[in-house]
Amino acid sequence: MALKFDTSFDPSYGRGVTVAPDVLRVTAPNPSPFTFHGTNSYIVGRKTLAVIDPGPDDDAHLKTLLEMIADRPVSHIFVSHTHRDHSPLAARLKQHTGAIVLAEGPHRPARPLRIGEVNPLDASADTAFNPDVALADDTVVNGDGWAIRTVLTPGHAANHAAFALEGTGVLFSADHVMAWSTSIVAPPDGAMADYMISLDRLIERDDHLLLPGHGGAVTAPRSFMRGLKSHRKMRERAILERIRSGDRTTKDMVKAIYRDTDPRLHGAAGLSVLAHLEDLVARGLVSTDGDPAIDGIFAPIA
User: What is the model's pTM?
Assistant: First the structure.
């Protein structure tokens, strides 16, 4: 299918929006080119609640979450991954509610830093985060009238997880699948090979509604994710074509491939190209001296 993004989204700052039975979406006021209108937090349940992705350390967002929770107890706080727009508020929300915090684990890169390499995404990582409970793949946590299954989806981040609301067909897809944009996959935090494997895993599921970390819902998940996969494969082909036509650096490839993209996103685009190049080098389709690097020289393999 042709991939069509949906950017029609009302963040409704300061209040909760019902997006599924017993699920409220609360959007943090942290809009940016990377977060769209802001980070979506979700409140799940009717009596004793769970919160998914409490969001950035923002006073206004905490206030709105507590107002929407009202006087109901919160038993669990689930965190999809440790980027600063998703996990930092967990600590303060735990102080207010006494809930336990659950996630795949602390922040870590998808691969070790190479000699001389600087991680350009250090500032976006919540390295102080440490969950009370580390979630293994396929773990089911039972709450008051709800059950949430962990579906590990590394790619955007090494510790990224989606959460399935059992028996409903609803999946909280965080930053792995979003209706408004593709996910950023940027080494060393993320890895394209991991992302594609995780995408295939979600395509194989039978969820009928995805509630992402930014923007509105994905209402036809399987066809949309197939479109995402095709888009990534098309981007891979475009990179190979640029290399075969003489481009040797990520900077040159970004200029050609992302010429219609907001220049503020070109840095992230370069990292996305690098993620594809790491995968292409590993598969023996592209060569480079040493390990693939953002400032490396790349060449085709005949």
Answer: 0.94
